[in-house]
Write a structure and sequence with these properties.
Layout (H helix, E strand, L loop, with lengths): L1 H20 L7 E9 L5 E10 L4 E5 L6 E9 L2 E3 L1 H4 L4 E11 L2 E6 L2 E6 L3 E9 L3 E6 L2 E5 L3 E8 L3 H5 L9 E8 L8 E5 L9 H88 L8 H63 L6 H22 L11 H15 L8 H26 L1 H106 L12 E9 L14
Parallel strand pairs: 1-15
Antiparallel strand pairs: 1-2, 2-3, 4-5, 4-6, 6-13, 7-8, 9-12, 9-14, 10-13, 11-12, 14-15
Helix pairs in contact: 4-5, 4-9, 5-6, 5-7, 5-8, 6-9, 7-8, 7-9, 8-9
């Protein structure tokens, strides 16, 4: 009874396996090939049972070689032993069942002649008694224990590894069962093999894999575009950093120019202040000359002294006028240079902002959010620098020279006069004084006394000229002070601009470093991540898929064991039953 129960359990297990592996389709016939093998796996009887679609049923015995054969090997405590010698023994037992696929074909895969096998999935099952057997294991299979008995099921796929061309993955071609026994015996080993691996609907997976190939190529294309974009960003940030450095160098020159202009004009301003002060002294001296003409006869020495003061004052006026002219020229050139460089800096900053905005417009917000944020942050910093330049109100190259030009015009009027007797100018007045002094020196004190009336007239003219000069130098000093304040403001502004640009340059360096790191990372990601994956999918995986498609064709082609040339669809399965192994008692033979 127990023997019958064991066979029923094993048979039920194998039927469950067949229900899982066999497709549910309408076939013209259904073949089941039953084979008995001895304990070494050698076949000695094969019966083919055929059921037709119309319900008719036939059975016939055949000597035809099976497409799948097996060989059984036994070891006890690590040493090979025959099944007969193993019966009744105790120790660690290993049973290895090796399957061979004889359905070999030469097919074309990717245009290359390749050896492949009709795929067979093989399930092997056996039941052992827990009372005498423990520590049961099986390779590539499943163990089910109901408390008294253990059902062992192993899987094998002979020939499939070679058919698929696998080198890194091992598919089993044998089943190895190991356990500890105190009294070895073994019931029948059931083996079921079928060439049907997939349903027709399951083969749609291969079509989906083909779609993946196209998407993989798209992925590689996008990855290449991302890498190119990262390299372009790297080049752009490098150029931006270089231009920032050039702009920084220009701003250093602007600052030096502003500092120099401010320093030099301070000297000019001092000269103008001195001129204004001396013009007051000259004015007072001329007044004293005019008032003291009537007493000139009383002291030639006093006249000589005043003449010396007058001559010194004229020399100071001449020197001051030259300083004014030189200072004005320096101020004009410095102001023009500063204005031109600032306008150039503004144009460069605006061009960079426009270029960044153009780059942003070409980027994808979903993919390039980090790059867009980086460019927008750079634009904000550039806009702040532009605002700083705008705050200097240097938009017209001549606007900052207006005050200086106006003041200069007044200075020139004071020095050169306007061509009238009421305003002869400093030059004409000094010439008149010089002529008077020369005449005085020529004719001597006696002539001076006799010509007092003329000298009084000349002294009045000189007095009037010094008053005009005083007004002009006062205006010049006022305009010069304004110019000095403007240059000081320009110097302060350029220093602030230079400081801001230094920060901008540091930011550009950080951006350039980040872009370089990004480009390197994306290159590594593409080369070591995306490309190997795409190459594998388009290479090994595509080859594996093509082999699998061909293998499924071979599976579909195997419709019958007895009549393999028939065109009608059929299904076939093979059931192999090995002899049981039991210890011989009282001369009885092994149970078969």
């Amino acid at each position: 009874m127990n023997k019958i129960k064991s066979k029923l359990i094993a048979g039920g297990l194998l039927v469950s396996f067949l229900a899982y592996t066999s497709p549910v389709l309408a076939y013209a016939k259904d073949e089941t090939v039953y084979t008995k093998v001895n304990t070494q796996g050698e076949s000695y009887k094969t019966i083919v049972s055929t059921q037709m679609e119309d319900g008719t049923h036939t059975q016939e015995e055949t000597n035809k070689k099976l497409p799948i054969t097996c060989k059984m090997k036994y070891t006890l405590n690590g040493k090979e032993i025959s099944a007969e010698e193993l019966a009744g023994r105790s120790g660690k037992v290993t049973i290895e069942i090796t399957y061979t696929n004889h359905e070999k074909h030469v097919v074309s895969v990717n245009g290359i002649k390749t050896t492949m096998f009709t795929p067979f999935a093989v399930a092997t099952g056996v039941i052992v008694n827990n009372e005498t057997n423990t520590n049961i294991t099986v390779s590539k299979g499943k163990i089910m224990n109901d408390g008294t008995k253990t059902i062992i099921v192993g899987m094998a796929m002979p020939g499939m590894q070679e058919s698929l061309g696998l080198s890194k993955i091992s598919l089993p071609e044998s089943v190895k069962i190991t356990f500890e026994t105190t009294n070895f015996e073994l019931g029948n080993i059931f083996t079921v093999a079928t060439p049907k691996l997939l349903e027709d609907d399951d083969k749609e997976l291969l079509a989906e894999i083909d779609e993946i190939y196209g998407k993989v190529n798209t992925l590689q294309s996008y990855s290449n575009q991302i890498e190119k974009g990262a390299n372009d960003l790297k080049k752009g940030t490098t150029t931006y950093y270089q231009k920032s450095q050039e702009f920084n160098q220009a701003m250093n020159q602007v600052e030096k120019g502003a500092n120099s202009a401010n320093t030099e004009y301070a000297k000019l301003n001092q000269g103008i202040a001195s001129l204004n002060a001396n013009s007051g002294t000259l004015n007072n001296g001329a007044k004293q000359v005019s008032e003291g003409m009537t007493a000139m006869q009383s002291g030639v020495a006093t006249i000589s002294t005043k003449l010396g003061q007058l001559e010194a004052g004229i020399q100071m006026i001449s020197i001051g006028a030259k300083q004014v002219n030189q200072g004005v020229t320096i101020a004009q050139n410095a102001a023009k240079d500063v204005t031109t460089k600032v306008l150039t800096a503004k144009a460069t900053i605006q061009a960079t902002i426009d270029a960044n905005n153009q780059t942003i417009s070409t980027l994808n917000p979903a993919i390039d959010a980090d790059k867009i944020n980086a460019l927008q942050t750079s634009n904000a910093t550039l806009q702040q620098s532009l605002s700083t330049l705008d705050s200097l109100a240097i938009n017209d190259p001549t606007s900052n020279l207006a005050i200086l030009n106006g003041s200069l015009a007044q200075v020139k009027t004071g020095i050169e006069g306007n061509g009238t007797a009421q305003n002869p100018g400093l030059v004409l007045g000094s010439q008149t004084v010089s002529q008077g002094i020369s005449q005085l020196k020529k004719d001597g004190v006696d002539v001076l006394v006799s010509q007092t009336t003329k000298l009084v007239t000349g002294s009045k003219q000189l007095y009037d000229g010094t008053k005009t000069l005083k007004q002009g130098t006062a205006t010049l000093e006022n305009g010069s002070s304004q110019m000095q304040a403007g240059l000081s403001s320009l110097q302060s502004g350029t220093s602030e601009l230079l400081q801001a640009n230094n920060q901008l340059t540091d930011g550009a360096k950080t951006l350039q470093t980040g872009a370089t790191t990004l480009a390197s990372g994306i290159h590594t990601f593409n080369e070591e991540g995306i490309k190997p994956i795409c190459n594998y999918i388009n290479g090994d995986l595509r080859n594996l898929t093509n082999r699998a498609e061909k293998m499924f064709e071979l599976s579909d082609d195997y419709q019958s064991f007895m009549n393999s040339d028939e065109e009608e669809r059929g299904k076939v399965k093979f059931i192999i039953l090995s002899d049981s192994i039991k210890e011989e008692k009282e001369g009885k033979e092994q149970n078969k």
